[in-house]
């Protein structure tokens, strides 16, 4: 697997010396402080100086530095240096958490794009689902059969009832999708591509055939036998559009 490039935080200006005092709340970020900030951390510095949304700025910066290839330790060092330069204090827990979570989310997205499979469920990643559908559309160019007539998507969606924010809820959602995955594999075991669309949806790319309705009915029976706790499950057949561009837009909608 390709590794992130090594990123070293660099100052915009000379690192010798430091400002005599940090700016007061509600003030603009002084230029001499701005020049000393680690790269990418200007938004955090400005938020600290003005007293605006520091947590939101940390979330944005966390994703940015992850995409630049910074390790988490480097990102946290940049945050610590920014707080020290602007306020003369250590970062708050909320700011550190926001940056760390954003960094982790961006890193996982990167890894999922590299991998063909979601590491938890074993379902194909969204990137792989797109790739497989692209192959199907390219193959259709050499035949007289439209993709809308040769293939379809079978979508399974988990719909959670309130409350949805109890402790451990994210883990519970993931485990429910694992159960759904096993039901999908039991029904569509003939080499069909099974993928993940967003947090609570799974998809099977299936050939259109006379027994597709029977297979979907069987899937509903399997899902009905599962103990999904406070989740309901929806199953439907999604038709594929005639053009690959329209298919891309459809996947984007389904993955939201």
Structure description:
By secondary structure, the protein is α+β, with helices and mostly antiparallel strands. The protein folds into two domains: 31-114, no CATH class; 126-255, Reverse transcriptase/Diguanylate cyclase domain (Alpha-Beta Plaits, 2-Layer Sandwich). The protein has a four-stranded antiparallel beta sheet with strand order 2-3-1-4, sandwiched between helices. The protein is elongated, with a radius of gyration of 24 Å. A hairpin with a 3-residue loop joins strand 2 and strand 3 (201-207). It has helices spanning 31-36, 42-50, 54-68, 72-86, 93-114, 126-140, 147-150, 169-187, 212-224, 244-255, and strands spanning 151-160, 193-197, 201-207, 231-239. 26% of the residues are buried.
Compute the number of helices.
10
Rg from alpha-carbon coordinates: 24 Å
Largest sheet: 4 strands, antiparallel
Tell me what the CATH architecture of the largest domain is. 2-Layer Sandwich
Pairing-aware structural class of the strands and helices? alpha+beta
Report the principal-axis shape.
elongated
CATH H-level homologous superfamily name of the largest domain: Reverse transcriptase/Diguanylate cyclase domain
Helix content: 40-55%
**Element string (H = helix, E = strand):** HHHHHHHEHEEHEH
The level-1 CATH class of the largest domain: Alpha Beta
Give the total of domains: 2
Work out the number of β strands: 4
**Amino-to-carboxy terminus distance:** 27 Å
Query: Low-confidence stretches at least 5 residues in length (pLDDT < 50)?
Result: 1-22, 164-168
Instruction: Give the strand order, joined by hyphens, for the main sheet.
Output: 2-3-1-4
Overall average residue pLDDT: 83
How much of the sequence lies in strands comes to 5-15%
In CATH terms, what is the fold-level topology of the largest domain? Alpha-Beta Plaits
